[in-house]
Write a structure and sequence with these properties.
Length: 348
């Protein structure tokens, strides 16, 4: 789906929130297109869950507004917002069956019993839990409980789906399975979705776009490739993926001098004198290239498909480098040369 040509289903305008002296949200503005899955990614305390709670109606903002489908819902109580939500702890009713848990939002909306039963069966089929209707939550695995929570969130066909770190309690393999299932279901239903996580890999797998947050503010909103390859600032570069980060000054368009005087050829037309950050992703290094570094291997790890190396360069800097697994793993203490092409060096 092309978000650039899709109308915004969710508009957050200048939302602020303080808890005492702590600024949890600093005039946040964000738009989510109809049918888009946008992930809000950030460390603990960045404001991402507070923003989700404001959208859901569990927290009232100090200023700004929230619109869904063009209607201002800022003052509406959660039950009237037509929003489905899935929490990390599932929040299932332990004394109620799977079917009763999923039917609960329909009962609250006065849906007739026969229609509710049809929708519950449909929702459980979507999450591959047909036949589990009579079980209690304690009789289910963690992944099955999460599927029940997801079915409950979509059974009433909400305008917006919010997922607050829903896979944090699952083991890695199950988490990866659930990520793909949620993505498949979200696309099938065309649900406008906000996904909250601190896991950068999860964000890259799931998202149409990613909004990176820190200290109550959005640092960058972009597609997954742009967030990774062209981060807007040092925080995004360091938080999303492994990075080799340095400061420098543009000596001329296409040439940057790092703070220690080392010059690099770069694919940037920024003017001479501009103060810049320089990012080199570990996997963008090769054996040959315009910008070569000689050094000594400090640490070497075999990762199956490649080698991860920490190299102490002769010029005093340290680089983290990932290379394809060819031949034997370089031994610590051995010397080697690595290089990176100008268009693989990102300047911001």
């Amino acid at each position: 789906m092309n978000q650039a040509h899709s109308p915004a289903e969710l508009r957050i305008r200048g939302v602020g929130k303080r808890f005492g002296e702590v600024v949890a949200l600093d005039r946040v503005s964000l738009e989510v297109a109809r049918g888009e899955l946008l992930t809000i990614l950030g460390p603990s305390g960045s404001g991402k869950t507070t923003l989700l709670k404001v959208v859901a109606g569990f927290e009232a903002p100090d200023g700004g507004s929230v619109e869904v489908g063009g209607a201002d819902i800022t003052a509406l109580p959660p039950a009237r917002r037509d929003i489905g939500m899935v929490f990390q702890n599932y929040a299932l009713f332990p004394h109620m069956s799977v079917a009763a848990n999923v039917a609960f939002p329909l009962e609250m909306r006065g849906v007739a019993r026969a229609e509710a039963a049809r929708r519950v069966a449909e929702a459980l089929a979507m999450v591959e839990l047909s036949g589990y209707e009579a079980r209690l939550p304690r009789q289910l695995s963690g992944g099955q409980q999460q599927r029940v929570a997801l079915a409950r969130a979509i059974v009433f066909k909400p305008r917006l789906l919010l997922l607050d770190e829903p896979f944090g309690a699952l083991d890695r393999k199950l988490r990866e399975t659930m990520q793909l299932e949620v993505r498949r279901l979200q696309r099938r239903l065309g649900l406008t979705t906000i996904f909250i996580t601190h896991d950068q890999e999860e964000a890259l797998v799931l998202s149409d776009r990613i909004a990176v947050m820190d200290k109550g503010a959005i640092q960058q909103v972009a597609g997954t490739t742009e967030i990774y390859e062209r981060p807007a600032n040092a925080f995004v570069a360091a938080f999303v993926g492994e990075s080799n980060l340095f400061r420098g000054t543009m000596r001329a368009p296409g040439m940057v001098a790092l703070d220690d005087g080392r010059t690099l050829q770069v694919a940037s037309d920024r003017p001479a004198g501009a103060s810049v950050g320089v990012l080199m992703r570990p996997e963008r290094f090769d054996a040959e290239g315009a910008n070569a570094f000689d050094g000594r291997v400090v640490e070497a790890v075999y990762l199956g498909t490649g080698f991860k190396l920490r190299i102490a360069c002769d010029d005093g800097r340290e680089l983290v480098v990932r290379l394809p697994a060819r031949g034997t793993l370089p031994a610590p203490g051995s010397t080697m040369r690595v290089a990176i092409a100008p268009d693989a060096v990102h300047v911001f």
